[in-house]
Amino acid sequence: MRLAVVGATGAVGNVMLEQLRSRAFPADEIAVFASARSAGRELDGGLIVQELTEEAAGGFDLAIFSAGGSTSREWAPRFAQAGAVVVDNSSAWRMHDDVPLVVSEVNPDDLAWHDGIVANPNCSTMQLMVALKPLHDEAGIERLVVSTYQSVSGTGMKAIEELRRQARAVLDGEPWGEPRVYAHQIAFNVLPHAGSFAEGDDHSDEERKLMNETRKILGDPAIRVSATCVRVPVIFGHSEAVNVQTRHPLGPERARTLLSQAPGVTVLDDPASGVYPIATAAAGRDEVFVGRIRRDPSHDCALDLWVVSDNIRKGAATNAVQLAELLVARDLLHGRAGARAAQA
What we know:
By secondary structure, the chain is of the alpha/beta class. Helix content is 32%, strand content 21%. It is built from nine helices and twelve strands. The protein has helices at residues 11-22, 69-81, 123-139, 157-171, 205-218, 252-261, 279-282, 313-329, 336-343; strands spanning 2-6, 29-34, 49-51, 62-65, 85-88, 117-119, 141-150, 224-231, 238-246, 265-267, 288-295, 302-309. The strands form two sheets. The chain has a six-stranded parallel sheet with strand order 3-2-1-4-5-6, with helices on both faces. Residues 336-344 have low confidence and may be disordered.
């Protein structure tokens, strides 16, 4: 089996390679790709970075992409047409009707209808779906109100560097200069602005992703979603305050039981003892942590939850590798796109 990792030098790409090694992914060969300026660079494990070219894109069984939307739009179809199944981490393909949008613990059966490309959800949507799937199966979800507290690593390495630079300057009482990544100072601050705003839209693209991807993954277009996405001065780990209104009554105790039994979920819920999910404890972990599970006193069929996960791991890299594992285990490589290439 030949596997390509596209965008291997980025923060998510590095973790993808770590996960492929630690989970003993059954690849006979792994090739890594990045921009031309990284070509020839040697990564941990001795892999040499290659530049993307038409000739290099052929002959793979699987390709995992984490290289941004423009690269995915250009190159994912080329890899797929050449016979690979692409697992893409960008937003480029998520809402295409013929591309499954999959969380490994939530809707793995959707992998069966891929046509050469499978999409990884947005990181904030990802952890939310892992937490909500057992509740949706039990009682149905009518409406969600979600406020996210998103770490700067979701923006990239430059955002991490900006937070560290500003924090050092503020603590030392020195001027930190103008912000370069965010619209305002992020150190010791909270920005009600995660993502970008399309012209004429009063919701950011992060908020729109959470709304639209939730409905697609759960397969229920009737779910109503209200989202506010916030950027906070945390390096790794997204946190979410979630109000979930169900179609049928669901009490906190039953919700705790369902979540405790759900794959990929760890329940931490003893707030009086200081036991609840926090971003620093979730960093470097693959689970989705859920706590502060309680009844919403304003509605008979609503609960409040606190959901935390590492946005680079489960929110991106880990799920992509899990999807690759499922494609292999379920014999879903060389799907319809691969069959067309073989017949050509």
